[in-house]
Please model this.
Amino acid sequence: MEKKTFLGVIGGSGLYDLPGLSNIKEKSLSTPFGQPSDTIIAGELNGRPIAFLPRHGKGHRFTPSEVNYRANIFALKSLGVTHILSGGAVGSLQEQYAPGTVVIPKQILDKTVGLRERTFFGKGVVGHVSLADPYCPEFQKAVFNSCKSEGASVFHEGTYVCVEGPRFSSRSESHAFRSEGCGIIGMTAMPEAALAREAEIPYCTLAFVTDYDCWRENEEAVSVEAVLAVLKKNVDTSKRIVRSVLEALPMSSRNPIFNAAQFAIMTSPELIPAETRRALWPLYGKYWDTSTGQNPAALRLFFQSPTLWLSTSFQHSRITIFIFSSKKAAQKLLLLILVMRSHWFIQSKPMASSPSSSFSLTITAITPAVCKLS
Model:
């Protein structure tokens, strides 16, 4: 599936605006999962669409545990965002990642403790999306090259350990994370990365190192003052990187993550509660047949002829066979679908095992249909 690219930026600490935007619009969105952290600022940079959302809200009002990650990701998806660049402050757990450097991690270790809503699934629908590689390699490469082009000291490696916060680590915890092979420590990568994958959005963390956490015994432990001081020095660099990333993105993309949930949903479409289907339609509607759950009796009444509805459901498509008493009745259905501009593939042929007067239509729903037949 090819999409026109649309960059979304989730700003972490110290990254609250994008200067140079034109055609600026403020989007106040509601989602089935509540309100996003703040108004989304949408606009254009050099003719390319971009949207910005402050993760903690303007003025830094929400703790990492209070951020409504589901609403944030859902809102960006609803606007048409195709790629998410997630900026934020982190502590370093390795000597080479000095304060002021940028790390684009390849992996995540989730140490949050269950206070955060972490999936779009549930309430009647079960899905299992792979997060073996939580970041998009293709997108990360573009971000890495943009950092280099802007003169940043950047590493594309390592593991981001995500802790609950809002407190900083104890020394024992910091040493334990180091012993597990983690490179940087932060509080916001999860469930943000997992939700982006469920929403089929390529995602990349742009981590700005502000301190050495507290594992270095000969240095003062991390403090808010130290974090803010480093961030202030890096604000201009981070904004230049964002601009460069936008320019580096291709105008359109066929990223495989656009179909990350294609085989993830285990629940049969007809068993998913209507309210859940409505809530998740912007995410997974392309995999669900809109005729599911509708009343065949309405079709029989419309055609005023005996109709047999034979249906077989597969995981991501539905084949429905209508058998009518005459070819004329079948043609009525075909005409209705064409008039309603439904995206259905249709085959019609006489039924070999039925009376010569019967006729059938086999309809395979391959994308969401426009028409409502109930």
